[in-house]
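pasting input
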Amino acid sequence: MTQGQAKQGRKDQGLRQSMAWLHTWVGLLPGWVLYVIFVFGTAAFFQHEIDGWMRPELSSETRVSPRALAAADAVLKARAGGAESAFVSMPDPRGGSGLELSWRMKDEKRGGDGNRVILDPATGEEAQVRATKGGYFLYRFHFDLHYMPVMWARMLVSIAALAMLVAILSGVVTHKKIFTDFFMLRFGKGQRSWLDAHNASAVLVLPFYLMITYTGLATLLFTLMPWALAANFPDRQAFYKTTFAAAPEREASGRPAATIPLTGMIATAQQHWDGALPTYIGIDHPGDGNTTITLYPEQGGWGHPSHNTLYLDGPTGALLPSTQPVKGGAQATWRAMIDLHTAWFAGYGLRWLLALSGLGGVAMVATGLCLWCVKRRARLHDPARPHFGFRLVEGLNIGCILGAPLGIAAYFLANRLLPFDLADRAAWEINSLFIVWGGVLVWGFARAFACTAARAWVEMLALSAALFAAVPLLNALTTTRGLGQSLPAGDWIFAGFDLSMLALAGGFALAARKLALRKARPAPRQRARREATA
Amino acid sequence: MTHLFTALPCLLGFALLLSAMARHQQDWLKRKLPAHFSRLLRITGFALLAVAFIIAGLGLGWAYGAVAWCGWLSVGAALTLTAQTNRERILTLLRR
């Protein structure tokens, strides 16, 4: 029996050790990508609020007045006549996007920015809004990355997310005392403290990590596992046609006929959807006898199926027959997973909880990456001259862990600093993000290879504190919606954003101060030891 | 309001779970509590977490409430951990 126990013990040790090895390497190699996904994904929970802050010209009004709809009709009639298609995007209830009109002329490429007009939802006046990708870019970056083909990026992100799942499970096995150490966080004990911090940030928010990683993979389902589609449908289009609602495609007749006004389309939608509003309206061949109007519904509450897409005949406003979407169990499960990941249903209470959990993930990945170095520094042959791999990881750690937030701060600052009518303004905001991030990477490597990484951490933390504190300051200087005005006015998008930036600045400043003081302390002790041995 | 009444039992539940552990009893009270009392603390702690789930489910709907409950669980555990980490400071404050 005792022999059996010993054997069991050895086997257990073997499993745990192999899991520890797996956890170390599966965590480290995609770790920097995971960190970036967590940072940008967390920001994406406040995508529309960030949109609102980055478009200070838009008022905080999100309800569309009949006057604005009439103005939109006039713009479409005057400027989108003869267009292939036109689109009306209603303002998001959380803010950040006015009443947006766009259209595409014949032989024009999709996604062009030329034919786009933003109207004030209340007055209907054309708003002069600075060009920016806003919070949408931060959201897109967390799975599409940037400066590289989207499909490659998604594969990379998928691999990192799969590795994350493996790291979570192997981490649970490796973490021997997951329950007895549940409340343990001991500071000032070197490697022990890093391990505690890594364990605590992982265990306390574990359900969220499992959920967000798994559902994140589910959103990329057709990228990761296209085989079920390939086996059952000749191509993607055929799948979409059978699965989602569609109306018969109609050619333009060439016979001009007035399209019904937007108020008419919205009234029809409300009639069929128990008063729900459309979020997006597509108009094919506007002003033609064969115009087709597509009305996309608001999402229903969580657990309630959303309404069906409606198709109307342009000149008469009559409902066109359409195929209905397939609503099976698999479809519902998949939808629920995507809803859970995107959290569009979350009110501000839940949204903040999700964002805090996201920050927990940021902390978990960051402490894990740091732990790799801390653990190996103690075992270095010559601590003054670490091997290449060690310096590489240390440089990457500084460059990513602080580079990503510094880049985001630069993105917000660029939004206020770049001239209004700069060519490719939105692209230059994004470039600013990566220029600063690249700078931090270079600086991190320079310090890591000069063996002064500790100084780089303090410097970059201090710089992060300064840049994040500068964001609300610059906002107050360049707009009329600084904290002094937004707080008394109850302008929560601006007040919330500026206060969050100050909180981040405070966090970075605290970390910089702690680190600077800690680095200063061991010196006298070392000197004392040296004197004692001499 | 439901958020508050979900958060409080979560926080209290984790505080009881902490106090049910012998190691932390030693930390806070400088002595260990009897085993049956620790067990009672542990059962009450878990019961409070369950109560929080029911409150969240009834108040916010079961689907939405379950997500919110997970969030408050994390916050409750994190706050308990923060208290445990700053134990010396809290004890000094209490003694004064």
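fyi Chain B touches chain A through 23 residues (CB under 8 Å).
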